[in-house]
Amino acid sequence: MFANLKYVSLGILVFQTTSLVLTMRYSRTLKEEGPRYLSSTAVVVAELLKIMACILLVYKDSKCSLRALNRVLHDEILNKPMETLKLAIPSGIYTLQNNLLYVALSNLDAATYQVTYQLKILTTALFSVSMLSKKLGVYQWLSLVILMTGVAFVQWPSDSQLDSKELSAGSQFVGLMAVLTACFSSGFAGVYFEKILKETKQSVWIRNIQLGFFGSIFGLMGVYIYDGELVSKNGFFQGYNRLTWIVVVLQALGGLVIAAVIKYADNILKGFATSLSIILSTLISYFWLQDFVPTSPYSSMKYWVGQVQWLIPVIPTL
């Protein structure tokens, strides 16, 4: 049963990661009349949906009893304030990260974003070694170095990019900085959350409720600080359409799936699953979104060899 949950969670994560990146990119570049939806409000709504989903799952685990649900929430959350406060740290970092992803995908094509974002595998490995005392083999460290080389090739400017306008280069720089910051925040928050999950006996769904609670608070603070004027002018749900709600639901689903992967596998295997989504994102970005044209550096075999070398020592651990 444990092995099945590991496989299922990893498979769903591949689907969720690929779908979220593509739909988020499409929603941020789609030209429509009226104001565009605010990414800060989308992050808050996703957190609230995640809380609702987790409450329903706890309700199901409580044999569909409202009294039992109320007792569990009271005992595990209200009566353990210090345990709950531990989730404030990764929650704040995840909120920052979710907002950064919207910034990145507003300035980078889906394929370049996916490849660059895989640097989180390196940051996750470093934090896992330092915080969880995990040991990685020589081939795994070597593959991480090759991964960094591949990302450097992807970001190396082509002739067309050198001749482009400064505004375009500035947009790419903003997107790249957003991705790099998200990589470090993702690595630390993921390992910190894994440490909490595996050191306590609380349900993963209870932990997600705690995480979502703080995430909603931090998210609302971000809405007020950065988009308060726009919200007061056009409303909290300005620019929302069917595609926006799909993005929000996928983002909420991602929080649940990632928690399950961390619980039943670990953060390094999470990196394995998200690496698989690169190929899908690249193909769809090229054939469907048509916002990505492979260049010589991007198609360099160094990156793909890096992915293969990373997967070889990881696959047996599944």
Q: Descriptors for this entry?
A:
318 residues, 81% helix, 0% strand
Task: Annotate the secondary structure layout.
Blueprint: H1 2-29, H2 39-61, H3 66-78, H4 81-85, H5 88-105, H6 110-117, H7 119-132, H8 138-155, H9 159-162, H10 166-199, H11 204-234, H12 242-264, H13 267-289, H14 301-314
Give a structural overview.
The two termini are 13 Å apart. The chain is an all-alpha fold and 318 residues long. The chain has one domain. Helix content is 81%, strand content 0%. It is found in: Golgi apparatus membrane.
By helix and strand content, what is the structural category?
mainly alpha
Average pLDDT reading? 76
Q: Roughly how many Å is the radius of gyration?
A: 20 Å
Main beta sheet: strand number and arrangement? none
Number of strands: 0
Q: Tally the helices: what do you get?
A: 14
Amino-to-carboxy terminus distance: 13 Å
Unreliable residue runs: 159-170, 300-318
User: In percent, how much strand structure appears in the residues?
Assistant: under 5%
Task: Please bin the fraction of helical residues.
Answer: over 70%
Count of spatially separate domains? 1
Overall, the morphology is globular
Elements, N to C (H/E): HHHHHHHHHHHHHH
